[in-house]
Amino acid sequence: MSELENQIIKSAHYHASNPVNKKTSSEEKANRQYKLWYDLAFSHLTGTLVPQLKNANEKFVDYWLAYFFWGAQAEMKRGVFDEQAMRYEYGFYATGYLCLTDQTLYIVTLRKLTQTYPLFSDSFRGYMGGYMGGVVDKRAPLKEDKVRDTPYKLILAAQITEDKQANDILVIRTANVTWEISQHFTGTLQEMLTGIRMGISGQLTQIWNPAKASVAKQPSVDVTDLLKKLGELRDTGILTNVEFEQKKKELLARL
User: Fold this and answer.
1) Range of the structural domain that residue 224 is part of
2) 212: in domain
3) CATH number of the domain bearing residue 153
4) End-to-end alpha-carbon separation of the chain, Å?
5) SS3 for 19?
6) What is the pTM of this model?
7) What does DSSP say about strands 140-141 and 104-109: parallel, antiparallel, or unpaired?
8) How far apart (Å, rounded) are the C-alpha atoms in residues 104 and 160?
9) Which is higher by pLDDT, 164 or 39?
């Protein structure tokens, strides 16, 4: 198990029996201009989301401050009096925090944070390629507080890649939406990705269910031996065909 996986498991165990604490770091102390971000995110987490998690019987794992972009689209358009085509880019962006539980990925966007710390600000962004065709930024800020929940089983892919400006971003794909997530603190993208992959693989659920984890760790050779023994019991008439099939399905689920 990697160092990051152990770190996330320790955090999850700690929060299971202790109140969620506001994160502090040397970077946070050195960037007091972001105090509103820390305060609002923490206030929403503890006052709104954590009670919701308790009602849903979900276990809090960790959270990170982040920027979000989704709904990316682009098209080439010419103005009425323009000779050069312009590239128009669309989508939505917001600022808030990402939260992981044992069952679900939560993306929380807060209106006031989006207004105060926007991911994008320019409406026109330079020229394209080798000709005088500008990029018109039509990406829009989300002007509402919103909590989006995505069960891990609905996540199709998660990976760290680069955006057009060569900045690292975390890309999360589901059947309905693709999220591009930018970190606030350097190095937190890998933590997010590790936690999400642990959620997808079932590791986060197993933290609070050791019995299930031990079953999952049983070597497949043991299951093979048990299947042979079941076959022998069926052949000697001790088990009926129905009982054999039922037990076989249970054992195969361990592989």
Assistant:
1) 218-252
2) no
3) 2.30.29.30
4) 20
5) coil
6) 0.76
7) unpaired
8) 19
9) 39
